[in-house]
Amino acid sequence: MRGDWSKRYSEFHHGYVALLATIVVSLWLVQPIHAELNAGVDAYRKADYVTALQELRPVAEAGNADAQTYLGIMYRKALGVAQDYKEARKWFLKAANQGNAAAQFYLGLMYQYGQGVPQDEFFYRAARRWYREAAEQGVVSAQVNLGVLYEKGLGGQQDLQEARKWYQRAAQEGSALARFNLGLMYQKGEGVAQDYVRAYVEYELAASGGYPQAAEQRDLLAKRMTPAQLADALALVRQSKLKS
């Protein structure tokens, strides 16, 4: 009996030692990867793309999604390398399949504009898929672009309610473009009841957020509004700005 216990203890002890050795090796491997990733990102931010590529490529090849995303951006924008959409898509896809939201957004862009993607794939449908993945993780640009695809009926059926939902989510995060698009929907009564007051408010907030076209649209709309509507709109604008 004691022999059995000693044997089990010995097996456990050797197993525990092996586990500790594995953890130590893993930590040893992770530290250089993090150092190379940080060095690559730092070089990228300094526009030293040659160094960035040297540092990021081995980390990307080791499976790091952040490094893969940076490589995808560099190939898409021709930063330190010749522009290569297929290579960019390859790296974005690797990172996107690991849940990287930025890579998912860039894949959406590439499918929307047919950059480096297979000709037999339905561009807009795939763009919707990847934009949604990124939008659900809070990427504001993906939320806006997804709204546009739903509003225009690109990649599937037109769905104005879905478009409005994504515009609203992006607007709440500060997107001036999303607010402008909401203003258009309220002004035209598309997917919502026509509401000049709400449209004016959205245009004004979009203009304040740095979208110049919104100011022009706001002023044109004001000429079609009654004095009462304009007064209501200005009151709502003041309230909205006070809350922010």
Task: Draw up the topology in text.
Layout: H1 2-45, H2 49-61, H3 65-77, H4 85-96, H5 101-112, H6 123-136, H7 140-152, H8 160-172, H9 176-188, H10 196-208, H11 212-222, H12 227-243
Global Rg: 26 Å
Cα distance spanning the termini: 74 Å
Number of helices: 12
Total strand count, please? 0
Oligomer description: single chain
Largest sheet: none
List the secondary-structure elements in sequence, H or E: HHHHHHHHHHHH
Amount of beta strand: under 5%
Question: So what's the overall shape?
Answer: elongated
Uncertain runs with pLDDT below 50, 5 residues or more?
A: 1-31
Q: Taking all residues together, what is the mean pLDDT?
A: 87
As a percent range, the share of helical residues equals: over 70%
Q: Would you tell me the structural class of the helices and strands?
A: mainly alpha
Question: Keywords for this structure?
Answer:
244 residues, mainly alpha, 12 helices, 77% helix, 0% strand
Structural commentary:
The chain is mainly alpha-helical. It has helices at residues 2-45, 49-61, 65-77, 85-96, 101-112, 123-136, 140-152, 160-172, 176-188, 196-208, 212-222, 227-243. The longest helix is centred in the N-terminal third of the chain and has 44 residues, at 2-45. The protein is elongated. Residues 1-31 have low confidence and may be disordered.
